[in-house]
Amino acid sequence: MADRIVVMHGGIVQQVGPPLVIYNEPVNRFVAGFFGVPAMNFVEGELGDQRFTAGAFNVPVRVASSARPVTLGVRPEHVRLTEASDGWPATVTLIEPLGDETLVFLECGQGSLVAKMDAEQKIAPGDRRRVTFRPDKLLFFDARTGERVA
């Protein structure tokens, strides 16, 4: 892989930079969804009063914003599964063992998510778990423009 990458969409440059910068700090939803395997998870909701809400899902966030529609972006490795009472209820629909890690496909009230888990975790299709996200790794994109919300 190159030390600098140009991400284009429709013939227009979206972002230029080192691979890890593009991966960790995408400038818009297109770049976030294009760069990374598996792709970033997206959840439509509203950001306001230092909270992200999507239906019954309510997450405290570090972003101060007036109420506005946004898309939450979270990478699969930043999705956490727990049996505790906090988080969002989800059902495991599929697991994909990859050797050192396992992709866990989940169905939640707001749609589907993919989590990347340690291969040693015991999980099976049909399991009911709760989903939380690593709070320092959440990204928000304006629902209308797709641009990242700082």
Count of separate structural domains: 2
- What separation lies between the terminal Cα atoms? 28 Å
Helix content: under 10%
Radius of gyration in whole Å, from Cα? 16 Å
For this structure, the CATH topology of the largest domain is OB fold (Dihydrolipoamide Acetyltransferase, E2P)
Low-confidence residue ranges = none
Mean pLDDT: 92
Order of helices and strands: EEHHEEEEEEEEEE
Name given to the CATH homologous superfamily of the largest domain? Nucleic acid-binding proteins
Largest beta-sheet details: 5 strands, antiparallel
The CATH architecture of the largest domain can be given as Beta Barrel
For this structure, what is the CATH class of the largest domain? Mainly Beta
What's the total number of strands?
12
Number of helices: 2
Provide keyphrases for this structure.
150 residues, mainly beta, OB fold (Dihydrolipoamide Acetyltransferase, E2P), 2 domains, five-stranded antiparallel beta sheet, 2 helices, globular
